[in-house]
Each structure stands twice: as C-alpha cells, then as structure tokens.
Amino acid sequence: MSEKLYTHFRVTISEPWIAHVEINRTDKLNAIIPEVWLELRTVFDNLSTDPSVRAVVFSGSGERAFSVGIDLKWASKEGSPFNPRPDDHVDPARRATTLRRLGVEFQECITSIEKCEKPVICVLHGFALGMAADLCSAADIRICAKDTIFCVKEVDIGIASDIGILARLPKVVGSYSWVKDVAMTGRNFDADEARREGFVSSILPTKKDALGEAFRIARNLSEKSPVAVQTVKHFLDHSRDRTVAEGLQYQMAYNTAMIQTNDIPVAMKALISKRVPTFEKL
Amino acid sequence: MSEKLYTHFRVTISEPWIAHVEINRTDKLNAIIPEVWLELRTVFDNLSTDPSVRAVVFSGSGERAFSVGIDLKWASKEGSPFNPRPDDHVDPARRATTLRRLGVEFQECITSIEKCEKPVICVLHGFALGMAADLCSAADIRICAKDTIFCVKEVDIGIASDIGILARLPKVVGSYSWVKDVAMTGRNFDADEARREGFVSSILPTKKDALGEAFRIARNLSEKSPVAVQTVKHFLDHSRDRTVAEGLQYQMAYNTAMIQTNDIPVAMKALISKRVPTFEKL
Amino acid sequence: MSEKLYTHFRVTISEPWIAHVEINRTDKLNAIIPEVWLELRTVFDNLSTDPSVRAVVFSGSGERAFSVGIDLKWASKEGSPFNPRPDDHVDPARRATTLRRLGVEFQECITSIEKCEKPVICVLHGFALGMAADLCSAADIRICAKDTIFCVKEVDIGIASDIGILARLPKVVGSYSWVKDVAMTGRNFDADEARREGFVSSILPTKKDALGEAFRIARNLSEKSPVAVQTVKHFLDHSRDRTVAEGLQYQMAYNTAMIQTNDIPVAMKALISKRVPTFEKL
Amino acid sequence: MSEKLYTHFRVTISEPWIAHVEINRTDKLNAIIPEVWLELRTVFDNLSTDPSVRAVVFSGSGERAFSVGIDLKWASKEGSPFNPRPDDHVDPARRATTLRRLGVEFQECITSIEKCEKPVICVLHGFALGMAADLCSAADIRICAKDTIFCVKEVDIGIASDIGILARLPKVVGSYSWVKDVAMTGRNFDADEARREGFVSSILPTKKDALGEAFRIARNLSEKSPVAVQTVKHFLDHSRDRTVAEGLQYQMAYNTAMIQTNDIPVAMKALISKRVPTFEKL
Amino acid sequence: MSEKLYTHFRVTISEPWIAHVEINRTDKLNAIIPEVWLELRTVFDNLSTDPSVRAVVFSGSGERAFSVGIDLKWASKEGSPFNPRPDDHVDPARRATTLRRLGVEFQECITSIEKCEKPVICVLHGFALGMAADLCSAADIRICAKDTIFCVKEVDIGIASDIGILARLPKVVGSYSWVKDVAMTGRNFDADEARREGFVSSILPTKKDALGEAFRIARNLSEKSPVAVQTVKHFLDHSRDRTVAEGLQYQMAYNTAMIQTNDIPVAMKALISKRVPTFEKL
Amino acid sequence: MSEKLYTHFRVTISEPWIAHVEINRTDKLNAIIPEVWLELRTVFDNLSTDPSVRAVVFSGSGERAFSVGIDLKWASKEGSPFNPRPDDHVDPARRATTLRRLGVEFQECITSIEKCEKPVICVLHGFALGMAADLCSAADIRICAKDTIFCVKEVDIGIASDIGILARLPKVVGSYSWVKDVAMTGRNFDADEARREGFVSSILPTKKDALGEAFRIARNLSEKSPVAVQTVKHFLDHSRDRTVAEGLQYQMAYNTAMIQTNDIPVAMKALISKRVPTFEKL
User: Fold this and answer.
1) Which of A148, B195, D106, D270 is the Cys-Cys partner for D277 at CB 3.0 to 4.6 Å?
2) What is the mean pLDDT of residues C95-108?
3) Which of A100, A229, A235, A261 is the best mutation test for F, with the most CBs of F within 10 A?
4) Nearest Cα residue in chain C from E261
5) What residues does each domain of chain B span?
6) Is the pLDDT of residue C224 over 80?
7) What whole-number distance in Å separates Cα of residue F30 and Cα of residue F125?
8) ipTM here
9) Is some CB atom of chain E closer than 8 A to the CB atom of D248?
10) Are F65 and F123 in contact (CB under 8 A)?
11) Spatial separation of the C-alpha atoms in residues F174 and F171, rounded to whole Å
12) What is the CATH number of domain C2-222?
C-alpha cells in the first residue's frame, strides 16, 4: 500500500491497480480554491500515465460533503477574479484577457479528469454543490450515497459556469428540460432525482457502501485488458461529441494499432478457459 | 399589470418580471395558421429584449388544448403550400423555391422561442398535437397537466416535419428508440410517458396547477441575476450542439465580458447575508 | 407470402409491406462470422430499395439468443484478424492497412441497417451479447422479451469495439454514466435495466409477444405515407449528429422535393374522412 | 428602366434582369453609418426574391471611393458603441449585451449580400478601406479599377473587425501568410496585389471599364437558367464551409427538387440548337 | 507489361508500380455516360488495393479531349434522369427518391478517385469540359497540356453540378472570386489561367510532354515508402476538411500504427547511404 | 536590450516590444532533437503572456539554414521512437501508446507558435527542410531570403508527418494540386515558387534583408493597439477552421469584452490627429 499526500488531496493505492483520490479539505467541507484545482490537474495527469494504476476512485474526505463547491470566502475577497481591487487593471479588454488566461487554465484542470487515460469512478455524498457538479460531470461513472444533495449553484452568485458543467450536462443526461431546470434555477436535487434522470448510475445507502461499490467496479475494470478499457473510455468521449460517421472513422484509425495487441489472444484464451487473465502494464 | 393583445396571442404581465404568453384561438383549440406563427415571432422577439421581463410562461388558452397543431382546414385548402392550385407554378424547382422561402421563415418563427434571451417555461395541457411538439420542444422547460395528450402527428398527413421537432427531439430526450417510435408512428403518448422519457420535467394534476408551478419557477428565476440566468440558457443551447471543447472555448470568450458584471458581488453579498438581491435591468 | 433464404439469414414477407429478417444460425446461437456480416449488408441493401417493403422486423432465430455476438471459435483461430498466423505480414503498418480495409467494410455492413431507407424494428430475446449490441443499436426501434440478457462484451476479449456500439451508444440513451459503466465493464444487464435506461422502448413477456408487438408497429408504419415515414427516419439520423441549425437547413433542402408529393393531399383527405389511405409504391 | 432611390443607396434597373446597387453618399466618400448598413440589408433582401432580377452589380457612387469604411466622425462621437457617454450603462456585462445585440444585427446586414439569392458582382475603385473589405468579401465576384486602394483598416482604430472580413478572408484567398499580413498590419494594398493574391478576379483600367465588365458578366449570368445560377452560388457558399462529404450530401438533397426543373430540357435544346434560351421567372 | 481492357477504360501497367488509366471513348471525345462512371469506380476501387500499384496516371485517350463531359445525346434523350418519359413516375417525391439513389451512386463513383489509396496524377489536354472538372478535381495532382480548354459547363444545361466540382472547387484553389466566376458563368478558361489560379500545378507543351511529366512524378512517388506516400494523401484529404486540431488528433491516432513500420529504418538507412531503398508491397 | 539564452534558443529584445527568437544550433544547421521542441514550447509560452512583447521575429541562427529539420542522427539511433531497441516494449498497442503520448506533446510544442498570443513573423533562409515546414507553417507571416530551399521531407524517411504541416498546409496556400505535389514527393522548392504559391508573402535578397523586413513589420504591429492586433490573430486562426457563421458568432462573443477597451478612443484620436498613439501593456 502506498499513499501520497498532496496539499489538498490524498492519493492512496491500497490494493493493486486502484488509486483512491480524495479531496482533503475536510474542515472546509472540501471547498475549492485555486490551489485545489491546480493540484487536481497534477494528481490526474500523474495517474493518467502511471502504469501501476488501472482505475481511479474519486471522492471527498469527511462525512459531510463531497465538496460544497467554490470557496465563497475566497471568491468574495477583494482581489479575486470576481471582485477586482479598485487599483486593478480597469480596462475591460485587459481584465478580460487576464480572466481568459486564468479561465482557460481552470477549464484544463477540470478536464484533466476526462483526459485521464484511466477510468474515473466518482463517489458523491453529502453536499455536492456548485463546482462539485463541474468535477463529477468530467468523471466517467458517477455513483452516490443516499444522502447526497446536488446543485448547479453558480447561477446564485451571478455566474453562468464556464468551466465544465454547462458544456457537459446536455450530454450526460437525457432530459433537456430537466437540464435547463436545474442549471437555470440552481435548485437542489437529491440522490433519487439524480438516479431517475441518469446523472448517477447507482445509489448506495451510505458513503461507505458507495465507496465499496466503486472499488468493486474498479476491481472489475482492473482485471481486464488495460488497452481495451482505456480505449473504450477514449472512444466514448470522442464519439459523444461527433457524428457517428466521424466516430467510426476515428475509431478505426486508432484501433489499427490497438487491435494488434497481444492482450486479445490472452483475453480470449482466458475467457474460453474461464481463468483470470494477466495483462502487461500499460 | 399590463396586458398586450395581439391577434392570436395574449401577453400578460401580472407580476414583476414575468410575461405570460397564451395562444389565443380557444374556439379553434389553438390550431395554427400562418398568421399565428408569424405573430409568434413578433411576440418572442419583443420579449427577448424587453428589460422588464426576466422569465416567460407559455401556454394555450382554454381548457381543452395547448394546441391541436396545424389547422387542417387551412392546410387542405386549395392554394396552401400542401395543395397548390392547378394554375400555380408547376415547375418543381420553382415551387421548391417558394416552399423553401416560406419554410425557412416558418423555421425562424419557431426558433424565436429558443432564441428568446429569457427562459421560456412551456405549460402543456389537453391536446398537444403535431406542431405543438415543434413549439414546446423549442422552449426551455416543459411541464404539463395530467390530462395532456401528445403526438408528433405530421407523419399522418404525409409530411416529415421540417420546422423543429425532428431536429430537436434527438437532443431533448435520452431514448433514441423511443424518439424513433413516436416520430415515425405519430402515435399518442400521455403525461406519464412524457415524464418517464424526460420530455417534460414534471406533471401537475391540472392545467391550473401546472401554471402555478410554472409561475413558481419563473418567480425563482426572476429573483436571480438576469446576466447569469440568460447566459446559462445560451450556454446550454450552444453546447448541446457542439463538442465539449468547442463549448468550453465559446463560453470562456463570452464570459470574459459577463463575469465583469457587478451582479456577482451583489449576488455573493446577498447569499452570504441571506437576503434577496436586487439586480439592475438587462 | 414470399421467403428468401440466404445462407445465414431468412427473409420472409408474410404480409404486405413487412419483411421479417432473421439471423439464421440457430445451432450456433446466431454467433457471427464474416460471412454473416457481409450477407447482412446484402440483405439490408436489397430491402432498402425494395418498393414492396415499408417496414422491417429484425430478429434472431431460435429460442435461446438474438445472437451471442462474434463467434469466438472463429476469432481465436489462427489466421483471424485477431490472431495472425506466424507467417502473416509482420510489418505493423501493413497489418494495420489490412485491418483497416477489413474494418471499414465491417463498419459499412453494420451501418447498412441504419442506412436502410425503411424503418427497422429490432426484436431482442435471450442472449444479446457483444456484437448483438452493435447490430441492434443501428436499428431504429428496439423492443425485447423479458428474458433478454444484454452486454457490450468486446472489452472482455481485449477489444474496444470499433464497429458501431461505441459510436452510437452515447446517442442512443441518456445516462452517460450508465453508458460508461456497461461499455467499460462489459457486464450483463437485463430487460428491465435496458428499458429503464431507454436502450429498448418496450419489454414483452416472451419472444413471441415481442415479435407480435414489432409486427403491430410495422403494420402501423406501413399504412402511412412511405415518403413521410422514410423521411422521418432519415431526418432523425441526420439531426442526431448535427447542430439544430444544420438539421433545419438540411431538412428544408430535402423537403422541398418531398412535400411536393401527392401523398399529402391523399393523407389529409383520409384523415379528415377517417379512412385508411392508399399510397403509391416508393 | 426603373430606379429606386433609397436614402443611402440608388438601385437602378436599366436593362432586363440586372440591378445596379450604388452606395450613394458621394460627398462622404461613401463612408458608412448605421443607417447605411441597415438600409443595405433592406436593399439586398428585396433583390433576393425579386423575380425580375437575375444579377446584381454593386458599386460606390462618385469617382473617388467605393467606400472609405466606417464614418470616423460618427464612430468617435460620444454615444457611439465605441465611445459610450459617461452616463451610459457602466456594468460591463450590460454594455456587452447591448453591443452584442447591435453587433449581431450589423453582421446580418453585411451577410445579406452573401444570402442574396442572386449573384452579386462587386466593382471596386478608389478608396476601398476598412468596412469596404467587409462588404466586398461578402459579394460573389470582385473586380476593380486600376486605381483601387484596399485595406483592412479596423486594427488602426483598436478593433479586430467582427462583422465579416476576418471570418471570410481566410476562405476568399489562398495565401494565409498574406491574410495575416494585411489583416494585422492594416496596410494598404493596390489592385495589382489584390489580383495577384486572388482577392479580385480582374482589374480594368477605370471605374467605367470595371462597371462595363461587371455588366458583361451580369448579362451573361442573366441569360442562363436562374435555377442553375442561383443554386451554384448557394452550393459554393455551403461547401466552402464544410467537408466535401457534407457538401455532397446537402447538394444531393437540395438538387432532387431543382433538377426536376423544366429549365434543363429548355437549356439543352438551346445548347444543341445554339439558340439563346428563355427561362421562366424565379 | 500488363494491360487490362475495360469497356470504357484502358488500364496499362508498362513499368513497375505505375498504372495508367485512360478514358477510352476516343470517337466520342471521351463523353461520359452512366456506364462510364460506374466502370470508373470499379477501375479505381481495384487499383486502390492492388499491391503492385503505387501511383496512378489518369488521362483521356485521343488527341482532342480529356473529356467533353456528360454525353449530351444521352442526357437529352427521353428517359434520362434529366428528361423523364411522360409515363414515368410523376409524383415529385418519388422522382426525387429515384434521382437521389442514382445521384448518390454517381457521387460515389467520382469520389472513388479521391478514395483510391494510391496517388492519382491527372493529365488534362484538349477539351476538359463539364464533368471533366468533377473528375479531375477528385484527383491529387493536376497537370495539363498547353492546349487544354477547361470549363464548369453544367450551368449551361440548367444544372448546378452536385457530383463533385462545387463541393471541391472552393478547397482546390485560392481565389474564391475566381471560383464563383467560372462556376456561375460556365465560361472557358485556358491552361495559363488554370495554372495562375492554382487549379493545375504545371503546364507542359503537349499532351505527350504532360504524360511524360506525370510518369516522372509517378516514378518518383513509387520509389518512396508506400506507407508514407499513401498516408500523406489520406492526411491531406482528411485535414483539408477539418480544423487543425481535429486533423492533428486524427493523424496521431492513425500514425501510431503507421510509424511502427519497418519502412522508416529502411528509408533512413537509404537516405544516409544515398541508395535507393526497396520497400515491401502494401 | 535584454537577451535570454536558452539551451537551444537565443531570445533577444533589442528594441521595445519586439522579441527575436533564434534557433541556436548553428553547427548542426539547426537540426532538431526532442530537447529543441520541448524548449521551443517554453520559449513561446513565455512570450505569449509577456506584457513587454508585442511581436515576435522567429529565425534560425547562422548563414546556412533556418533548419535542416529533424536530426537524422538522433532519429536513426537505436532507442529513438522510430527505431526501438530490441528489448523495448514489443506489444504494438503498448508501443502505440508510448508513441501517442510523445506525439501529442510534440504536436503541442509546434502548436505553441500558433497559440502564442503575439504575432509571429518567421524569417526563412538557406535550408528549410522537413520539420522546418512544420514550424514555419504554425507562424503567422512567412518571409524568406532569395536562397531558401524548402521541402516537406518526412516522406523520404518513410513518415507522413503528423506534427503540423499536413494539417496546416491545405489551409496555408491556395493550390491543392501543389500541396499534394510537394507533400507527396517531398521535392525541393525555392523562394520564387514559395512566393508564387503563397507559402511566403515576400522574398528579400538576403537573410539580413529579410530580417530587416521582419523587424519593419514587427515595429509596425507594435505601434498598434495590442488588444486589436492579438485579437485579429486569434479571430483569423479560429475562422480559418470553421464556417463563416460559427466564426461570426464566436467573434461577437469574444469582442463584447474587447471593444470595451479604452484603446479604441485612444487609437481614433491618434488617427484623426495623425499622431502615434500609446497603448497600455497587455
């Protein structure tokens, strides 16, 4: 078992192939400040190419919240991007340029979860407010505890979120009427509603149960060919955004290398003989 | 309270910020003729930039129908686009040109609901047939009364609708098998099925209840920053149609002006002090 | 009644306008080998322009399986694309070229179901594993028997499927978390789960009932204007993949010819007089 | 011969089928103010569907300039979009909203030249500065007099043009290095350079000669099938912006109506018998 | 030396790796009828995967014409797609469907030149009218004899071409003003103009010289790694139609197999030692 | 004057606002190894946001070459990506993954020139082979000395370049026939041909003259509003890749912040009074 302690994250590998990433600001209910999202990128970029990891479980530390979203204390402080100091640049085009540079980096940090080559299973519990939605919508599989309270809160601080949730939500669930409802009103919704609308794929009684289920899925994934699992993730994200024809053409280009893998005969032999296969690191 | 009477619509502002648009052809069950869709565009274009409006409730007058769709009497009359007079232009390319010019304008009229900068909550009840689906699928939030009967009827008059529903339906609900089923068969579906498939986001017992719920949502929206609410609507419609990467890039470009708004400090202060904020007109 | 016996398919026309296509390898549980997918294309290309056909029911023969997917015996045999002979071309770029040519043809075979101008109703029962998902996701309407077991199995043989399911699944159901779950784990899911997630639009007690329901839908479709029904299919598939604006522009271009059809007055007259219309062949 | 005098334009039809549109602010060197671009849209929207017009020649009145671009006096006046009054809305998001509404309308006015169904031949002479480039790049064919001085001037007043030239220029000429050069430096270029880079397709000694050549082309176009000519314009503009595959699919959809035209046998008969054909109005 | 005689084409392999395809209707000036374009597809589909071919030279037989385009005798005959028999289907939607099926196949035949995996060098001479432009714009390199007369003739028979030239021309040359000019007027242009505008890349004095130059290029290409040459062709056609970012992503996916080729060390060794490399068949 | 010495680059600021970036491996004719492209990204990322820089001149040190492209010694060494060690990973899918990670980073390094917010003027001289084309095609303006020899060499080492040139070349010049010619044959072309085809926008007698011209352009650019100049660069690169409609929509979103800049009144006042304006840093 290894554990790596970042400033705001704890990354634990307690069983082969599975990394557990926890947001680790328990006393702040895992509220998010710039240092958090910058470090988040480092965490997921590292896991992306770490050959000893085949699946990631992503959760928030403590009992009360996955995350309450952006740290309002930070955001409302003079000097934050949302509250410039009187002596800050006042030319709107120059302020826009500063905001854009920060914002693009912010987007890239959130997107590092989606870009992570390994599957990411996000476990939600307690409060999952505002930026929590941006974070978890960039993960692959979302499951939650019964007590989870979700919301797309940014609208209540005068902002249309531009870091992920509004770009991903129309593609993550089916009912566009519901998407507009929760994104424009910023209202809370609970685990049952999240499940009914397809935002999460299962509900477990407690955070502990949800983590257990996430590890069960992660274990399952880590026993399969990492070439196949990671390519499936990439193909789905690529095709979600494109025509079926473009998706097919890209997949074929990509797969002409991937299906030359030795994992296929290994997997087929194992399947036929009903044994657990062993795959080389990736 | 103000009320504006168009020929086929009634637009009422009975409380601050909320406009109620009603199709007003009760005796025809709100059947639609060209004058209706042309006027619809005028109505929504005006509301789009009216600074005294922050949310729109859209419904059909009378107890029996949101709308029975296109007025079959008009459509089947000699001289309509579907039934040319014997002495009308007979060159198929020239008839096509006439049909295209009319059709493009028709599309723009329906799309004026989507383009309206303010959120539009559509309340459905009774019959909601044929073109009713084109209209409501261009709105943001759909809720309905228990008695609503829906259908995508055009196929039964020999037409594949080209004014909205077939372009929007695959993006409005999740089950593509269901989309194909109702759009190819033109069969009726009721409120429960509409809710289960995500076409509407809630069902209320009666039209009156549904209108009450729509006003409750509208009131909620109108208390928030209009900059934030209207930008959320625009971002979702933009991203629904594009890759996540394109969505993120556009949102950042757009938001560099919008997040310079004074609404953000106003909203944050209100949120922290738990008071209702007041926002400048937009 | 006509019946056409292909090597691996049976195509029966037992009532006007409706073709029944059955995969006909009962003893192999309809497992799929290259001859099957090549013939599949011939079957659907023929039906696409056969004027005596207005709807297609697509199912698997026998009681035990729609299809168990790719024939593992074939796939694991030396000399298959997944298991090259030691003396086969070993230059990876040359092997890639061979794989691409085969793969592109394979994709086209599956896509022939989607490209078939006539609506295709797929009836699933028993095992519907692996490539079964590629096949049925290219059909228009999916219904299933209570006993159906589905899975996106390819990942278990070390492959990210590149022939259809991963390009279509994100667009066929609403919950992207569920899509990632079933596609990355390859786990089984049953009829109820398939219905709840929108992958099928109805469940019937038995295969026989499901076939009955499919024929009921097919009969309904075949009584309508074939111009309208086939155009609806095409518009939905086109719009699923594009912006609403692109969808609307294309539909208008396409429809300027289609709405000059005589089917419209015929259909309107029938609708008003409540009689069953008769439409010319297409 | 007919002549229609708008406030800022003169539209003359001095021979069958050909409309001559002139910017008519000679004493201001055809400098452009909001009234000009709003009226421009009216002019081109009317010509677009006028059945007595088959080609449009577009030029600037007077000897000295096609147009010197935006009227700097207007632009620099307090209260213009570029120079808000101290008591104007100061919230940057609200000012952005006002600018966007104006700007989108401004774009639509320029684009009315491209959207005009009839071919537009633009004749340039003398000064063709700043917004002149936005205007002429939306036309179909550009020819110029020897004395023409071009530039993409907006950069010199601190603006990256957002009304057309920067969206169209990369698609109007071949050398992207040249595009960047003239658009970033705002430097002048003359007729010879414009021809060498492909921005104009021919140079004539004088404005009068250039107008003569434009009328010669217009006359040629007006003797052909208007169905064919107008469809060619539309196909090229559609395909310029899309993949070859998308272009081909759209063209086929569009043409299934257009090639049913009687103009084809009329044109073929004329071609074979070497007589001038006569085509019905469009 | 091998020679394969099709009905309307002659395909000669007179030196290693290079196929010479000639349209072989000399007495008709290589005018094109449906049999020609259907056979064209067969010719290029066969060459595409023929491992003994690495480059294709494409020309027209005889001294007078590459091709005069569509055979007007055929096109104007009663019963052709452009001149239906009085007793042909008269429902415009049904005629449209027939035209679309024919047209899509026609497009695919032309596109087989672009889809051919091997580079195609088109040699033009004499008349190169109408459909000749559709054919040669789908080739990779165009060179011509001094005497070549080009035109995009379709507009003169009342048709906006929908089989290739209007989808490709905006991407084949730089000056969009020139594109509009030649495509809307259908006027002739000569070799010098074609070279100046970039439509051809070189002019040779005679057809014989031009063929010589084409063989010189083909020989050069056939001495290089076929993996590299064919991938370059594919990458350029893919990127021409997409954003730079999409192009780069696709190329990387495709190349992960291709740059594992043994051709790279072979080519590098040859380059360093200045010897001619030998590459395995592809 | 400041000078920053990187390992492989020299960055000099010898006059206000203008950075001169030189590839600094003179003795290797500026041949490129991985350290070079990684450092290139650092150089351009730093310049991108350096407020004291408004234009970048990019050239190669020494008299003989801008760059001879990839260092063949490095590329052919055992252990390079093109020549794996016998004991390297042999599973083709795993090698593909390694190659993709390296390749994506390589692409990002080249693209840092295009992403650099400041205009980049590339001065070419002597040999400009292979990867030199990838580098300079990502710059904004290309000018060259009379003696420059260009080629797209990668094909001669068995590779279809996937790091930039094949994605950008179809959009950088007009003649697609010429693009295919030089990219498939890898043949040399000289300054005159580069100018004629639009690959460079001017030729100067010597490297020194070309540098002088580049500084003249850079000086011109640096006297303008940096808001305007940098936005023009961004708009052109965005629009090059998208439909005109998408380009216009994005530009308007972006500009609602940028045209609130105080640079506009400053620039207009200067223009009217014919004085040189002074703009705030960006």
Assistant:
1) D270
2) 96
3) A261
4) C93
5) 2-222, 226-273
6) yes
7) 12
8) 0.97
9) yes
10) no
11) 7
12) 3.90.226.10
